[in-house]
Design a protein that fits this description.
The protein has 152 residues and is of the alpha/beta class. The chain folds into two domains: 38 residues; 100 residues, Alpha-Beta Plaits (2-Layer Sandwich). It has a five-stranded mixed beta sheet with strand order 2-1-5-3-4, with helices on one face.
Amino acid sequence: MKRVKFVKYLVIGVGSAMLVVLLYLLSSTLTVAGGISRVIDRPTHLVRLQVVNGSGVKGLTREVAKRLSGYADSVLEVRVVDTVDFDLRGLPRSFVISREQDKTAAALLAKKLGLDPSEVVYRPLEYNNRQVSATLVVGKDYESMKPPGIIK
């Protein structure tokens, strides 16, 4: 008699535990299936930017790169992948060079910086192992560049 009661309680206990596990699995499945969806708007164009200092102002390349790196809006995202300090002194104006035949992204960058997008030229890099898509050559007019522009 004791053994029958024990088996009966054991079956009820195991059955209850299985029911709890089943309900837990069902609720987590519904949560995953129903989930929360989040729409991430990605910019239309990505610019992998090389910044070149042609102004003669020491350290300007790093400052420009820091301010532009990570810039993003609904149309354009900028990732600075290279900085170069050439011994070019006195370039009067800043300009953008497209490293891709499609100059759209480079022209958008030029426009965002307050530079003339119609002056963007295409010049491919011979060894483009960093996959640079545009080069910003910073001239003496760097202070006049607009945000996401440089230094005010």
